[in-house]
Design a protein that fits this description.
By secondary structure, the protein is mainly alpha-helical. The chain has a domain of 43 residues. The chain starts with 20 loop residues before the first helix and ends in a 10-residue tail after the last helix.
Length: 79
């Protein structure tokens, strides 16, 4: 059973891309700039964080698995 933050102690998980302008200008693939917000729910974000923090999984492996499950752009490697 998942824990519920009934006191609203933790802020919501809002994914925000942080990209240099020159990187955007060089991008030739629009899918690398597509917003992630419609793709991932707060519950999924908590699960991914748990995989890394609690289960000690490699962050890049967690990202790759998530992207593959959502059929997101897989051409660029994860850090």
């Amino acid at each position: 059973m998942p824990l519920v933050d009934d006191k609203h102690y933790f802020p919501p998980y809002d994914a925000v891309p942080i990209v240099r302008r020159d990187a955007i200008a060089r991008s030739r693939n629009s899918s690398t700039r597509s917003p992630i917000s419609p793709t991932i729910s707060a519950e999924e974000m908590r699960h991914l964080n748990s995989e890394v923090d609690a289960n000690q999984r490699d962050p890049a492996a967690v990202i790759r698995a998530f992207r593959a499950s959502k059929s997101l752009y897989l051409g660029a490697p994860c850090a």
